Amino acid sequence: MIEKIQIYLKTRGVVRANRIIFTVSSILLTIDVTNIIQIFNLLNSNDDEKILYKKMCIYIPTKIRDAIKELMELQSIPKEMFKYVFEELLNLSTEDLVQIVEDIDIDEDIKDFRISDNRNTNQLVIKLLETSKGKTLLNADCGRGKFIMQSCHENLGKAMTGYSFSTENYLIAKIRAYLKKEVVVNIIQKSFLEESDSEKYDMIYASYPFASAHDMREVLPILKKINIKFSSKRTIRFINMIATLNLLENLNEKGMLVSIVPEGSLFNLLDIDFRKFMVDNNYLDAIISLPLGLLAPHTSVKTSLLILKKDRAISDPVCMIDATEICEKLRRGVIFSEENINEIVSIYTEENGISITKEEIVKNDYYLGVERYKRGNTNLINPISLNQVSKTIFRGYQIKASELDGLVTDDAERTKYRVVNISDIHAEGFVDKKLTPIIVNDEKKFEKYCLEDGDIIITAKNSTVKTAVYRQYGDTKAILTGNLIAIRLNKEIVLPYYLKTFLDSKIGQAEIKSIQTGTTIISITPNNLKEINISFLPLSEQRKLADIFKEKTEEIIGLLEKYETAKEELANLYDNMIN
What we know:
- By secondary structure, this protein is an alpha/beta fold.
- The protein has 22 helices and 24 strands.
- The strands form seven sheets. It has a nine-stranded mixed β-sheet with strand order 3-2-1-4-7-9-8-10-13, sandwiched between helices. Strands 15-22-18-20 form a four-stranded antiparallel β-sheet.
- α2 packs antiparallel against α5 and α2 packs across α7.
- It is elongated, with a radius of gyration of 31 Å.
């Protein structure tokens, strides 16, 4: 039935067909059955849409009349379309109409996606909030009210409130709330950046849209209230942390606030003052790192859940939960099964996550990425810091493109100098032999950036982390560029090829992840690299692993050279045969 109506509307150029289906279904659910004949008479009259819808609203209950009238005016539904949809939906039962109003995917336009519409994420949040045993709930921004509808079905509370700023979303959420007779639901048209009201709630879910731009003047009152200084000469995006702190004023002393935030806000410089505020005031109770792709296809932003409370003891640690792999992976994105949700909630309630003290967070400059604090759980053998076994760890020369263009030469015989860029690092773990030659006049300027045989190279800034062992060929001198870092080991203690095998391992990858920042562009600094621990094996054991690695690398290089030769032969096959 619904598909038939959707096809009818879309063939007539309607882009948002589900909004019309929602509106007409709402009218059918709110009017008295005895008035249906009156609606039919109106639809068959000569009245234009404006007069028709005004007359129709007489039969809609007073409490919801204005909302439905305004929604119809926003959509400007032609009379013939309205009549067709009305007649088709009359064939459905009340239960079917209720399901349409509560569950139909209003979000036909991907750009209009609201976090609170994501049913899968909502279910996890509901189960977390249940642990607070609260009775009153606030959802801001509630969008179209999907989270509140799910909360009603799960009997999460006795009274629920939703803030929704967009007019259309507010009207849809208000209509949905009206139909939930068993729970007191109040939808308020309000921006999440407006001054908080005096109402207190046991449970709050902060589900703000991502990447919405706001003038700093909107957020300055909030920053002033929590005594955080911030530049007022800019537009700000990703205001989730600011809006979350604004809602703390609405949280009961024994309540729980759950907020979904972009993962970058847990470690970027922009949000450090907000993290400091949460930690120093002992509000932060838990962080749950969510799987990448959970909100796909609407957004690829990596997200985390923050749990905030006011009644924490000074000695209470922060519980960090890595839920990135506790999910069901689909072809496009991921979902939580019921078992996944129960597992995450169980880790939280039984405090089986990673317990981090406030002092440790302060020591890490209020960095809240879960990966950094997982290192203590790895099975390192005789752990030792990388700094203890290195002669130096340095970043390459920050060379501008214009400067590099002036140094590059096509005559490699003229110079012994080469540059190493990210593109020269092969995924297989070695540096390309054919490096770009450059003319260097001021050798002292580049001397400290030159590589030595056996230096480990790692990307400082890239979409992925790449590592390689540099091999010296002849008397050439390779200058490392600024997006790369070199680790020069004390080879009497640790062998370069052994370290490469360790960094490629699951334990090594966990160590690297623990010090990296960024989600789309990953950043690593020399100082952070010094902090990671490695497994310190006897040289004899290191040599065994190093020899195997070198052997396999040579094998890969040989295969790649054969591949390139064969590819070149195919490309020139016609010319060679004809000539």
